[in-house]
């Protein structure tokens, strides 16, 4: 099952820019951009934890497991 990072959706819900989150976290904007575009194959737990603390969310809200099975046709 692939894991997907919902950061882009969460920022949109909060009307927060990637640049603003990067500033609050004191990380490079490129780091946030890669996570928002779900363009990562690895992520450090420390980074994910820092995102969760900054946005005041749980890890279960940031990461979702997608079922890699295609739903049956109706």
Question: Summed up, what is this model?
Answer:
This protein has 74 residues and is mainly alpha-helical.
Output the strand order for the largest sheet. 1-2
Low-confidence stretches: none
CATH topology, which one?
434 Repressor (Amino-terminal Domain)
Largest β-sheet summary? 2 strands, antiparallel
Radius of gyration: 13 Å
Write down the overall geometry. Answer: globular
| Strand coverage percent | 5-15%
Using DSSP, what is the number of strands?
2
- Percent helix: 40-55%
Q: Cα distance, first to last residue?
A: 23 Å
Q: What's the tally of helices?
A: 5
Give me the oligomer status: single chain
Which structural class fits the helix and strand makeup?
A: mainly alpha
Order of helices and strands: EHHHHHE
Identify the CATH architecture.
Answer: Orthogonal Bundle
Number of structural domains = 1
CATH class bucket = Mainly Alpha
In CATH terms, the superfamily is lambda repressor-like DNA-binding domains
Overall residue-averaged pLDDT value: 88
């Amino acid at each position: 099952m692939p894991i997907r990072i919902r950061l882009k959706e969460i920022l949109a819900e909060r009307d927060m820019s990637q640049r603003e989150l990067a500033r609050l976290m004191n990380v490079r904007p490129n780091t946030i951009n890669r996570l928002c575009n779900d363009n990562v194959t690895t992520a450090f737990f420390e980074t994910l934890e820092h995102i969760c603390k900054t946005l005041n969310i749980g890890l279960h809200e940031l990461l979702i497991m997608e079922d890699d099975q295609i739903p049956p046709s109706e």
